[in-house]
């Protein structure tokens, strides 16, 4: 039995095991995901707040691909990251079962913060669905005050 989406040419094959792209230095990191029922609203499209979840997961996986798991970083250095500012543009809707690529590209680094550009793209059509500029602050876990990004981590995220 074919679904209405398949009849309209909207069928997308299953994602391969989720693996991020290992981009050359300076290139965007890309994380694959898919839209599930829990991501959608009554209109059948991704609820706007869920795009923020997709963006956060990609940033987390970007750090993990660079060798830094956030929990381990917290335990070893007392460092946590917090979104300081975020600007989003919703360009087109994502729908149930859509395969998406969520990218992360470093824009700039300061002593205690960094800014990334992010994009959510529909795999099938290549259409950009959402774009974001996100400033991330490096904070001391005990005080939640800004602290310098650890030197080793700073060097790695700038690669």
The residue fraction in helices comes out at 10-25%
CATH superfamily: Hotdog Thioesterase
Number of helices: 4
- Structural class computed from helices and strand pairing: alpha+beta
Largest sheet: 5 strands, antiparallel
CATH hierarchy, class: Alpha Beta
Rg from Cα: 17 Å
Uncertain stretches of 5 or more adjacent residues: 1-18
Task: Briefly note the CATH topology name.
Answer: Thiol Ester Dehydrase, Chain A
Order of secondary-structure elements: HEHHEEEEH
The CATH architecture comes to: Roll
Percentage of β-strand residues: 25-35%
- First-to-last CA distance: 48 Å
Strand order of the largest sheet: 1-3-4-5-2
- Topology, number of strands: 5
Walk me through this protein's architecture.
- There is one protein chain.
- With 159 residues, the chain is α+β, with helices and mostly antiparallel strands.
- It has a single domain (27-157), classed as Thiol Ester Dehydrase, Chain A.
- It is built from 4 helices and 5 strands.
- The protein has helices at residues 4-7, 48-65, 70-77, 151-157; strands at residues 29-34, 79-90, 99-109, 113-122, 128-140.
- It has a 5-stranded antiparallel beta sheet.
- A hairpin with a 3-residue loop joins β3 (99-109) and β4 (113-122).
- The longest helix is centred in the middle third of the chain and has 18 residues, at 48-65.
- The model is unreliable at 1-18 (pLDDT under 50).
């Amino acid at each position: 039995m074919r679904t209405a989406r398949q009849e309209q040419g909207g069928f997308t094959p299953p994602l391969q095991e989720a693996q991020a792209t290992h981009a050359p230095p300076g290139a965007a990191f890309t994380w694959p995901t898919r839209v599930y029922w829990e991501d959608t609203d009554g209109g059948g499209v991704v609820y706007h707040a869920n795009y923020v979840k997709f963006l956060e997961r990609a940033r987390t996986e970007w750090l993990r691909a660079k060798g830094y798991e956030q929990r381990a970083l917290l335990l070893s250095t007392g460092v946590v990251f917090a979104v300081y500012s975020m600007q989003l543009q919703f360009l087109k809707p994502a729908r149930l079962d859509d395969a998406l690529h969520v990218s992360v590209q470093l824009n700039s680094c300061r002593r205690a913060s960094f800014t990334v550009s992010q994009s959510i793209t529909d795999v099938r059509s290549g259409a950009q669905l959402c774009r974001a500029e996100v400033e991330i602050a490096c904070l001391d876990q005990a005080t939640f005050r800004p602290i310098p990004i650890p030197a080793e981590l700073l060097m790695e995220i700038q690669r």
